[in-house]
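As a warm-up, study this chain.
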Amino acid sequence: MRLVSYRRRNQDGTTGSAGLALNRDGELTDLGPLDLGDLLRAGRGALAAAVGRGGPALDPAAISYRPLLPQPGKVLCIGLNYVDHAAESPYVTVPDYPAIFPRFSSSLIGHGEAIVRPVLSDQLDFEGEVAVIIGTAGRHIAKDRALAHVAGYSVFNDASIRDYQFKSAQWTVGKNFDDTGAFGPDFVSADELPAGARGLKLETRLNGQTVQSGNTADMCFDVATLISIASQAMTLQVGDVIVTGTPAGVGFARKPPLFMRDGDVCEVEIEGIGTLRNPIRDEIPAEVRAA
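Now compare it with the structure written out below.
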């Protein structure tokens, strides 16, 4: 099952009503004014019933994509979760415990929307990652039961403002600038993928050039382990998201560094899940907006 969150485009260019659509081989079926998070919280039967009812065809040209879950309960991001990325980072070694930091809903954008480079920085970096959507709540989840709590997977670009990320030991600010967390386009139910989304090729391209190429089998902490560890501290709720980390090749580790600029296009493609594509735009300063 593949689902997308959308908002209609009006003829005058403004946006209209929001909804959910079923994606079958690129053909969209409108399921109506539904929210994926609400459906997941109503139980897996509610999701199956909504898909079973179907609806009219939806023209992809008549919609814009929203973040897959526009208002997730928690977004937990994982740092340094690939051996090769840990090696290229300032920290060098693989951690004994996953680095976990939050993303907030105000930072999220959908497929096709612009990732915004803030006026405060010229260090906007790319990070292609697998996103895990929780479908069953739990606390103290055993690792061998953890994957039963997964509803599905998606693609995430954890675009980072590097100079702000490294201003302190706490990464939260550099990971939460507005319009930097691209999420989507498809929700892919867990039954369509290998257990734990393991063994999937992950590739990030900037202006068509491959800048990251990895495989989810190379995670230091796999999906089941991340769910189990996170649930030791907090209850994972339905609709929470775990963003599982990025492989090597990020821009700040390159010599010279490679950061995203206005007019660039960044794509993250994950085997079996899909391709997330976003243009890059400079933030318009407040004084220009007010003029």
